[in-house]
Amino acid sequence: MFSLTNPDRLKLLNHNEQQRNLKPGHCNKFLHVVIDPDFLKDPQGTQVLPKLTELGCKYDLAPQPVASTITFYRTVAAKLTPDGAVSGNTIQEPFAVYLLNGGDFVAAVRNHQLLGMMRSVKEQLPNRRLSLIVFGLVSHCRVHRGCVGRRETEHSLTEVQLFEDVSHQLLETAEQVANFVAQLARSIAELPYKQQQMEKYSSEQMYLGNEKKGCVRVEGTAGLQQLYQAQLIKVPSVTLEIAEAIMSVYPTMNSLLQAFREAGAEGSNLLANISIRRAGGPITASNRRIGPELSRKIHNMYVSTNPKQEL
């Protein structure tokens, strides 16, 4: 067994540490949430800080270019450079949250100023995807009857989403605001890990691979039999014994598909007479067979081109 030199060992340890820091739960501590003090005013912001603390994210209270906004940045853990030095830096995340109370929102909608307002906010927070929180709209409209119509409100929000790519949340309680900020922070923190997983499992070497229990990992040709068996078992009424019976006649998925193609119109009945061995016992005349109905279901799953086909 080859022993690693000291620099190689340090690089390996550094790589393992980086991978651990990317994982959900660990990654939260590297995300910083920068909150404008106006965002935390009563009543909407009373639960934001406790929620972020519970999540494990760090937060900074600092005036933002636009009042009542939140931005995010990530601290990259120190890592080894190719020349052996240690480096670390921060990365600005391309997301922001802007909070607008119900009264100001109604005024902007009635004066047809909401689109211009969102455009101005985005200009002051460049290169960020903006999420709009409208806080207390329902409560405001209950007190001020007839202040703004539903159709007018929906039109303004749709206009903002289409022209400025600004999503929105209509929230009424401080808990809802805190939950939304925490959920967004967690999603941003886990983004590098999810991107890495997507790249990993979309490569040619990893087909239908997963780290979850019960999934089949395929590398090259290893695992293809297990994947074939797992697919058959997904068909309603197909047990492990039935899958093994089919695989004893058609050992690969390709051989089964080829048999269906060659059978043509008779393909739906191709598997009907295959005998099923019970619990690994011998095949005898009394043993049951797959039957025409189950054969039809399996044929439909592999041959049908109708996306709405029911098994």
Topology:
Blueprint: H1 6-22, E1 31-35, H2 48-55, E2 58-61, E3 69-80, E4 86-101, H3 102-110, H4 114-124, E5 129-135, H5 137-143, H6 150-164, E6 167-171, H7 174-201, H8 224-233, H9 240-249, H10 253-263, H11 292-303
Helix pairs in contact: 2-7, 3-5, 4-6
Describe this structure as you would to a colleague.
With 311 residues, the protein is α/β, with parallel strands linked by helices. 44% of the residues lie in helices and 16% in strands. It contains eleven helices and six strands. Strands 2-1-3-4-5-6 form a six-stranded mixed β-sheet, sandwiched between helices. Strand 3 and strand 4 form a beta hairpin. The longest helix is centred in the middle third of the chain and has 28 residues. The chain is elongated and about 75 Å long.
Q: What average pLDDT do the residues reach? A: 84
Q: Globular, elongated, flat, extended or rod-shaped: what is the shape?
A: elongated
The level of helicity is 40-55%
Q: Give me the side-by-side strand order of the main sheet.
A: 2-1-3-4-5-6
Integer-rounded radius of gyration = 29 Å
- Biggest sheet architecture: 6 strands, mixed
Q: List low-confidence stretches.
A: 204-210
Per DSSP, what share of the residues sits in E-state strands of 2 or more residues? 15-25%
Can you give me a brief rundown of this structure?
With 311 residues, this protein is α/β, with parallel strands linked by helices.
Keyword list:
311 residues; alpha/beta; six-stranded mixed β-sheet; elongated
